[in-house]
Design brief:
The protein has 61 residues and is mostly beta strands. It has 1 helix and 3 strands, in the order H-E-E-E. A 3-stranded antiparallel sheet has the order 1-3-2, with no helix packed on it. It is flat and about 35 Å long.
């Protein structure tokens, strides 16, 4: 996923969030040097405890 983001090959990211802390793991987006700004465009609740978050990358106009 990181490589696709770095090469601007992804238009949006959809994350399903389950509110549980599991400890130290590898970061989802890593420590990328070229940060890509994202905008939250949609949120949905799935059942009682999941959240579906949709982000779009902010492109230069």
């Amino acid at each position: 996923m990181r490589t696709l983001i770095e090469h601007d090959l992804i238009d949006e990211v959809r994350l399903v969030v389950f509110p549980v802390v599991l400890g130290a793991r590898e970061r989802l987006f890593g420590e990328a040097s070229g940060r890509k700004p994202m905008r939250l465009v949609d949120t949905k609740t799935i059942g009682d405890s999941l959240a579906l978050l949709t982000y779009e990358f902010v492109r230069d106009a």
